[in-house]
């Protein structure tokens, strides 16, 4: 059971976060992460976490259950397709001969190109994959899908409620909308303090997504959490910057590392790991 009594390390973490907040108060925003290095740094970050595997396992089985006929998936903010390729491969393998249509939406053309190339490299006859280079708000989609999936991408949309409504409208009746997003837990408390604002809004975390679902009246079938861990102590500066979603200055790196150390828990190998949970929201289109 979780203890509600503050431990010395949670008090240290809170004090370090306050210090960082004080240091940033009134300062110019830190530089944002750049699109050309984003996918590379993201991949390096994910290699230090067990979250990708947990997401892939969780999604693969559920998507495969959406039927044994032709299956279509829309992945919004698909990035370089690392996760989607794994899911597509699993779907093709789950029911041999079943046609699988996989569509990505991704604003950064470099990542979108990698998505298409990786899907093609699977060499699966049953799989057709394409990507639209656009933000979700600008994307024009004139078909519906068995599943519409956002994995770690809804943080960046300008309007959550509009996004959820548009996304559900792209799900065929009986199909599902999946939104996987991080809570504002220990790791993302840093993002809140350090990341520059995105087009006039901060990054949306799970509580914002839950409120937006509620405001739209979309009924959720499931809200669950996958408890992952990420090992950041040995990580280089680029991974650290990805973790806080900003290019840190050299002076900020030491207190950020001290904070991450304070919020760490022992992993299976006994080494310190930062909790890296992801929340899963699922709604069925009626
Ligand atoms: C953290 S990455 C996740 C990529 C992929 N879904 C995965 O899990 O590996 C977030 C992705 O969302 C994309 N993105 C940012 N703003 C977006 C928007 N307005 N609409 C759609 N995608 C967006 C980014 O370019 C990036 O590829």
TrEMBL record:
One of its GO terms (molecular function) is methyltransferase activity. It comes from the Bacteria. CDD domains: AdoMet_MTases. The keyword Methyltransferase applies. GO terms for biological process: methylation. InterPro entries: SAM-dependent_MTases_sf. Keywords: Methyltransferase, Transferase. This is Class I SAM-dependent methyltransferase. Pfam families: Methyltransf_23.
